[in-house]
Amino acid sequence: xxxxxxxxxxxxxxxxxxxxxxxxxxxxxxxxxxxxxxxxxxxxxxxxxxxxxxxxxxxxxxxxxxxxxxxxxxxxxxxxxxxxxxxxxxxxxxxxxxxxxxxxxxxxxxxxxxxxxxxxxxxxxxxxxxxxxxxxxxxxxxxxxxxxxxxxxxxxxxxxxxxxxxxxxxxxxxxxxxxxxxxxxxxxxxxxxxxxxxxxxxxxxxxxxxxxxxxxxxxxxxxxxxxxxxxxxxxxxxxxxxxxxxxxxxxxxxxxxxxxxxxxxxxxxxxxxxxxxxxxxxxxxxxxxxxxxxxxxxxxxxxxxxxxxxxxxxxxxxxxxxxxxxxxxxxxxxxxxxxxxxxxxxxxxxxxxxxxxxxxxxxxxxxxxxxxxxxxxxxxxxxxxxxxxxxxxxxxxxxxxxxxxxxxxxxxxx
Length: 414
Known about the structure:
Elements: E1 16-22, H1 27-44, E2 51-59, H2 63-73, E3 77-80, E4 91-93, H3 97-104, E5 109-112, H4 120-128, E6 132-135, H5 138-155, E7 159-161, H6 164-176, E8 191-198, H7 208-211, H8 216-219, H9 229-237, H10 239-252, E9 259-263, E10 269-275, E11 280-284, H11 290-298, E12 321-322, H12 330-340, H13 344-360, H14 368-379, H15 388-408
Parallel strand pairs: 1-2, 1-5, 2-3, 3-4, 5-6, 6-7, 8-9
Antiparallel strand pairs: 8-10, 9-12, 10-11
Helix pairs in contact: 1-11, 3-4, 4-5, 5-10, 5-13, 10-12, 13-14, 13-15, 14-15
C-alpha cells in the first residue's frame, strides 16, 4: 500500500496513491477530481512525483453524473445511496453503499465530501483500516469527534483537513512544529489561540430583524464562495463557522477558550494562529477550494497549483469584525457544544440539519433556524458517546425534536 506521507519528490520510483471519493458529484468532489487531474499532469514531466488513481466513487443520488465521472476516470467501483438501479458486482446501492465501497476496494486515501452525517460510518471504517482521510465533511467530527479521533490515533491514520480555514490553521501550525505535522497530533507548544475567519455570508451587514424573514434565494446568494445548498445556508447563519470551530477543537486538540472566529468579508485570510509571545501568523489565499484540496493531496510537498492565484498588490483592504452573538448565535452554541462534550455536537448538528431542511421546504423562516438549534441544545439531555449507535441515537432524538417543534410552531418557535 502506498504511503500518502512520503514526500513525492524524495524517491526515484513513481509511487501510486489510490483514491476513493465519497461525495464525488458535489462541489468538493468535483474539484477533487480537477486537482487529481492537475497533479497527474504534473507527474508526466516528473517521474519522481506521486500519481493518483481514482479507484472508487460514491454519490447520494446523482447516478447519471456519477456514471459520467466513472467513464471519464475509468473507475469501475461505484456506490449510490439512493438509486433506481439494482446492486451489481461493481455498483453498490443503498444506505450502506459507501461503507461497502470502503470495505471492498483497497485504497490509500479517502476523500470525505459527503454532506451531513451520511458518510460517518464510511469515514470511521477508513480510519479503522489505517487509511488517510482528506476530510471536507464537518459533520463527521462535529457529531462523533471523540470516536473519530480515537480511531485515527489508534490506527495511525491521518486526517487532512480540506476546509480552507482548517487547512490554513494546519499550514500555520506546520511552521511552528519541529517535525512534519499532520492532524490529529499533539498541538505544537507555544500556541495561545486559533482564530478562524468567516465571510459573514450574504447578511453580514444586516440586523437580525432584517434577516429574520429572509428568502431562500437571498440566503443562497453568497458573495464569495460557490458551495452546495446546505453549506451556503449554514454560511448565512454562521452555523458553518460554528461547525468549523467544533471541528478545529477535535482536529487540533484545542479547547473553546483557545478558539475564536471573526468576520472577514474579503475571504483572503483563512486563519490566524497566535503564539504565546503575542505574534500572530496568518494564512492567506484566494477563495478557491482547489488550494486546500491540493494541500491535502500533496502534503508535505508544495507543488504548482491549479487554484486561483492571489495578487497581494491588488488588495485594497482587509477587514476583520467581531461577531455579534445576538445576530449570529451559532458561535456561542458551538462553544457550548465544545465545553459540554458528550452528545452535544451530535445534537447541534442534527438539529441544524433538520432546521435547514425545514427552512428550504418553507416550513419555518430564516431566523427560526438557529432558534430551533438553540431550543434543542437547551432541552435535550446530552449523553456519553461510546459508539456509533450513541451518535445515531442523539442524531435521531434531535431530528425528532426539531421536526415536532416545526409542526407545533405556527407563527412562533419557543
